[in-house]
Design a protein that fits this description.
With about 140 residues, the protein is mostly helical. It has 3 helices and 4 strands. A two-stranded parallel ribbon has the order 1-2.
């Protein structure tokens, strides 16, 4: 049974059951695989837009988190829930800083994470299932 949770990446990463990436090379010429690539691209666009909104609103995301790695998931889940709560309340234009101040500006910082490619084969049963569902 394929995983229910997965991450979406681009061709810089290797496809696995935990990380879905687009088809490349000759594979993308198959219409079903091309449809999967379009589907995945649309997902990535929505995810990137959401991260952009969240980074603009929650200043803690504009710099490396100064906490233990085991707390990062909880912090991110909290920010996600607060973000989703604020959208219907009409407060999506505000930025909440790390010390509670409210602002509307600033620079975004990109964070690059290393990838461990050892022991990962470039295949995914989940990716194959989604391709078949798109046909």
């Amino acid at each position: 049974m394929p995983r229910k949770n997965f991450m979406v990446g681009d061709n810089a990463y290797i496809c696995s059951e935990a990380l879905l990436t687009p088809f490349s090379g000759v594979e993308k010429e198959d219409p079903a695989k091309d449809a999967f690539n379009v589907y995945l691209s649309q997902l990535r666009i929505h995810i990137e837009q959401t991260f952009g909104l969240m980074t603009a609103k929650w200043r803690i995301l504009r710099q490396p988190l100064q906490t233990h790695l085991d707390k990062v998931g909880k912090i991110f889940m909290c920010i996600t829930r607060l973000h989703n709560f604020c959208i219907p309340e009409g407060t999506e234009g505000y930025v909440v800083g790390t010390n509670g101040e409210v602002d509307q500006g600033g620079e975004n910082e990109a964070i690059s994470l290393p990838v461990d490619e050892s022991g990962i084969s470039e295949s995914s049963m989940l990716r194959d299932i989604i391709v078949n569902d798109l046909v």
